[in-house]
Amino acid sequence: KYACRVVRIDDVGEDTRILTVEADNRRLIHFHAGQYAKIEMAGLEARPFSIANAPGSAQIEFHIRNSGRGI
């Protein structure tokens, strides 16, 4: 489990955003291509999202589309 902070949220379409996060201590988060992460926020149920960027970055991107079912 990593505690992360939101670095940036970019609107890239009518119903799509790119969420960029990094670990609070700025350490490298190890992951493999095709892997997903469960995103957990206060007061909301954790949900899995596919990691969109390549491994080896200190930041992780999630491309999130509004499906009308909450986060």
Give your account of this protein's structure:
This protein has about 70 residues and is mainly β. Helix content is about 0%, strand content about 45%. It has strands spanning about 5-10, 15-25, 35-40, 45-50, 60-65. The protein has a 3-stranded antiparallel β-sheet with strand order 1-2-5, with no helix packed on it. The radius of gyration is 12 Å and the shape is globular. The model has no long low-confidence stretch (mean pLDDT about 90).
What characteristics describe this protein?
71 residues; mainly beta; two-stranded antiparallel ribbon; 44% strand
Number of helices: 0
Main beta sheet, described? 3 strands, antiparallel
Written as H for each helix and E for each strand, in order along the chain, the element string is EEEEE
Q: Mean pLDDT across all residues, rounded?
A: 88
- Estimate percent helicity: under 10%
Share of β-strand residues: 35-45%
Structural class category: mainly beta
The end-to-end span amounts to 19 Å
* Widest beta sheet: strand line-up: 1-2-5
- The rounded Rg comes to 12 Å
State the shape: globular
Q: Which stretches are poorly predicted, pLDDT < 50 over at least 5 residues?
A: none
The counted number of beta strands is: 5
Briefly characterize the structure.
By secondary structure, the protein is mainly β.
Task: Describe the secondary structure blueprint for this structure.
Layout: E1 4-11, E2 16-23, E3 36-39, E4 47-50, E5 59-65
